[in-house]
Write a structure and sequence with these properties.
Layout: E1 9-12, H1 15-23, E2 27-34, E3 37-48, E4 51-56, H2 60-67, E5 70-79, E6 84-97, H3 102-107, E7 121-136, H4 149-155
Antiparallel strand pairs: 1-7, 2-3, 2-5, 3-4, 4-7, 5-6, 6-7
Length: 156
Amino acid sequence: MRDDKVAPKAETLTTQQCWKLLSDTSVGRLAVTVDGKPDVFPVNYKIDGESLLFRTGPGTKLNAINDDASVALEADAVSVEFGLAWSVVVKGSAERIPAESHELNTAIHGLFPWQGVGKSHLIRIVPVTVTGRRFTLDASMTWNLPLNDAVRAGLE
């Protein structure tokens, strides 16, 4: 049962609004299938036309993409100051861009993953769907978390 008095008001975003929000940030969470189970990884991405690019190195993400190119990427943001939150989900297929590709040489310069060493594979997400929601928050929905040791450590 949904209580409309406390549930945030959701606005369905247009595809154009979703792309604008995706261009305003560069960090998302990539969902892939690993050994038949979902797994999620943070990635730094850039928009290229109506697709997304990110760099990765050898390992779980790349193996998962090689096994099953179906992926989803979610990006979001919350602004307590303005009482807004949004979430955009891109579902599609991941394509490896060959090392000899001109795109790799031009795009790689603008992508700076958190762990930049060894991220020599460029991946393009070709969307099938791009959907998003924007939520209006009010003060009753803010999270009041005590600054315990774990929270404090994340802020330091």
